[in-house]
Structures are given as C-alpha cells and as structure tokens.
Amino acid sequence: MREDDSTRGTDATWWRDAVIYQVYVRSFADGDGDGTGDLAGVRQHLPYLRDLGVDAIWFTPWYLSPLADGGYDVADYREIDPQFGTLAEAEQLIAEARDLGIRTIVDVVPNHVSAAHRWFQAALAAGPGSPERERFWFHPGKGPGGDEMPTHWVSDFQGTTWTRTTNPDGTPGEWYLHLFTPEQPDLNWNHPDVRREHEDILRFWFDRGAAGIRIDSAALLVKDATLPEVPAHPGPGEHPHVDRDEIHDVYRGWRAVAESYDEPRVLVGEVWLADRARFAQYLRPDEMHTAFNFDFMARPWDAKALRESVQTTLDAHAPVGAPATWVLSNHDVTRPVTRYGREDSAFAFGAKRFGTPTDLAAGRRRARAAALLSAALPGSLYVYQGDELGLPEVEDLPLDVINDPMHFRSGGVDPGRDGCRVPLPWTRGGTSHGFGPDGGAHPWLPQPAGWGEVSVEAQAGDDASMLSLYRRVLALRHTEPAFRADFAWADDLLPGDATGDQVLAFTRGDLLCVVNLGPAVPLPAGYDVLLASADLEPGAAGTRLPTDTAAWLRRTPPGHATGTTPA
Ligand code: NOJ
Asked: Where is the Glycosyl hydrolase family 13 catalytic domain (predicted)?
C-alpha cells in the first residue's frame, strides 16, 4: 500500500495525472460462480487494485443489456444487468472503492441504445410518423417500394448501417440507422428528449458517487439530418456522421452538469479522430476534461513513430490546456504483448486476421518497456485489466465460443475482440484459475492452457514478473515528485552514437527516461538507475541499455558515486 493513501483523492484536479484502471466487468472476477464476471467479484479484488496503485477504475457498461455488443447495447441506463449485480451493489462498490482512495468512472453510451430499450420498442410499436420514432433515425427507403436503404454509410463494425422494419401487417416498413449492429439503433441527438435524458443519466450516476464518465463513440452522436452520402474526401466537419461541429454543444451541456457538483465530475471521451486539431476541440475548457490518445496506442513499436506521436500529442493538447492521456490497449484492441511481437505492430481496426504470427518473448519485452515509457509521459495513464499481468491476446479461441459481433460482421475474417476479453487468472490452480469460486461454472470464454502461470498468484511473489514491474512503476509514479515536473526531450543525453530513430530520451525534472528500440547503447554517465524494464548489461565503458528496454534514471547528486558506471 502506498504511504500517501490518506491524501489520495482530495485534489479537484486528480484526473490530470491519474492512473485509471479499466475493468471489463464480464471478465474481471466472478463472485457468484455463474461464469460471468460481476460486481461482487470486483468488490473482492478492490484491495488488489489499491495495492497496484490505481487512482480510479473505469467500468465498461454494467447496465441492463442483452449483451449483443458486450453491454454497449444498453436497455436501461439506471439498472445494473442482473448478471453483474444490483444497483445497490454498484452503490456499495463505488463507496468501498472510494474508501480505498479509488474513484469510479462509469461508461455512458450516448450514440445508441439497445433495440430492447423502452424508447426503441415504443418507436417500433408506434409506427411511421410517430413522435416516438423521432428519437431515432427512422426513414423510408429509396427506390421503388422503398427497398433501398436511405444511405450507403458503412458501419464501424463493417457492413451496412440500416435495417428495415416490418409493419404490424407484415409488410416491409421504414429503415432505421445503426452505426454499429442492428441491435444498437442510433439516437437522434437533434431531439430534446435525447439531450435531456442523457443529462439526467449523468446526474443519476454522479449522485451515486461516480467521479466521472467515459463517453462511448463520442464523436459520432450528431448526424446530418439531410442524410447525404459520405463525400470521397470530407473536409473538417463535413462528414455526415463523424465529428460534426454541432456535437460540441452536447459536451458543453455535460460539462456544466459535471461542474455543478462540489467535487466536479470528469468527462473522458472516446474520440477516434486522425485530425489532431479537431480532436483537441473536444478538450476545450468548457467541454471534456480528457480523451483517449488512440494515436499513441495504435503506433507500431518504432522509435520514430512513437516520438512523433508523443510530440504531436503534446502539441495538440497545449493550446487547450488539457492533459494528454497514454493508453496501450483496451477491450477493443490486441493485447500489447501480442501486438508488439508482430512484424507490423501498428493497430488498425478491421485489420486483425487469424494466424498472424507474433514473437511473444519480444512482445513481452517491448510491453514492459512501453509500460515505463507511457507511465513517464505527462498526463493520465490507462491500464487495461490484465495488461499488468502481461496477458497475451488469446488467438485460438474455438470458433463456436466467439461472441463478438465484429467477428460475425466481418464474415468471420476478423477474429474480433474476444481474445483480449478472456477472464483473468487470479490463482495458479482451480477450475477457473480463481476467476470464479472453485467448482463454479466455466468462464464465459475459456481460459487457455498455461493461464495459471500468468496469474496474479504466480506473479505476485516473483520480482521479475510483469505484475511486480507494474507495481513498481505505479508506486514510483506516485511518490516521485519528478513526475509532476515539465517534460523535455533529452536528445543531448542520447547515449553513444544512438539517434532518435532508435532511442527515446526525455526528462521530467531530474528524472530521465530512456527507451531503447535499437541495439544496446551505453547509459549516460552521472545517473542512478531507479527502475529498468529488463536487466541492464554491464560493459567496460559503462552500463548498457539492451534492445527493447526502458530505464528511469536520476541524476546522481554531486559527490556521490554514479550508479550507471562501474566503480
Ligand atoms: C466503443 C467501445 O469501446 C466498443 O467496445 C463498442 O463496441 C463500440 N464503441 C460501440 O458502442
């Protein structure tokens, strides 16, 4: 446990440099033994998260849902799905976490609801032209008999974005829009009910102690009501359903709700936008507090690419005064250990394929170095559950257990996202490696052979494990004042003949972070090693930083023997 526990959580700007741990509830821990993770499981493991050193937990959707998209299809935002627990338990969980100094961020999904949501059911029942349908995008089809869909917009999950309804008399009816699956109809954000309802949902969770919200698909809400086709090369704000200028009003309204609390609540956006200036617009002082840095997350293990991402990130955030975020993965993307071991280690949606080779030893080494890199950068840090254990992507799930609609909508070509959602291993043995109680139901996705060896139990006492590394990284990040100091590239300290194409070097105050993606290089003289992601190499001319290794160094105070050069 950290020494400063009593002071954690008192600062209104805690989110500017917080460590936020993402819990994918279904796969974290199963308290009741039905094979699905739940709130009881999370409550049991709160001390683990406290000891890991996290400031907040972001919970992926835990609301009532048919789980057509893992809960991103919400049937009722004010109810917890019975598979996960009850509203009373969620309230208890929020309070218990807070007692341990851990804040709660809930996931709000404003772009769409579940087809089972009462609004959508009412809209289907009320029929064409009804006020109930105006909360969604119902539209007659084009062409003879209205047989053609209103637009050819392509879904983020591949395929089409319109589904035709059937009238009560059995004849084909209107179409409705869904940027994701047909089970996730898009809401009409021009409708005042939709705006009012969401501000109310925010208050509902803020009143229950949630410290903030993560906003799903945050750049997609507003649509061009004239429903044009997507232009070949849309300019800024010209896309009919991505990043429309009118969207910012929504977030200004939400910020006002967040600011109306004594301890202002925090808005974190899931904003996938290549245009960094447009991205930064979401972070203006009266909009969101932070947004995920997917640019950094998607970069390959390449010094030039990572450096460029760090620089453009900092450049984009500076004018709006918002802190950057550093993200290595989440429940939608390939686990870092697997991704960084691939020949092409960049991430792109829809590009996943079965059978893509990876070198897990290299990937693990790089993921360890990436942990030091991301944790040393200025801003907040996200850790996706299981990355602290160095879990690989599970790439050989039997086809008949795959659950993710992305897989099915790709015609089975993309394996989908289940490989990073396999239930966590807590113990070496047991029927589900401690995911659930021994003798309980099998986990909803099968755990692969060897899962026990990467369990919390197996790693906790092993000094060389990924878990031990993460614990040290997060502890130092909290205790070292240097992590509150300014960032500066330190190319002048680049060791030997190394270039910025191989080595990233930067300072935060008196702390120097060096990440070597090329051949081994000497560490600069006059520094002590605080932490390294792998063993350093002793050498005649001084200690060397091996390939795919990161180190945190501190300038040796004058008069002391330096720690990086042999005595
Ligand atoms: C982004 C979420 O992270 C993802 O899991 C989900 O499928 C889509 N938004 C749709 O809600």
From this structure: 22-421
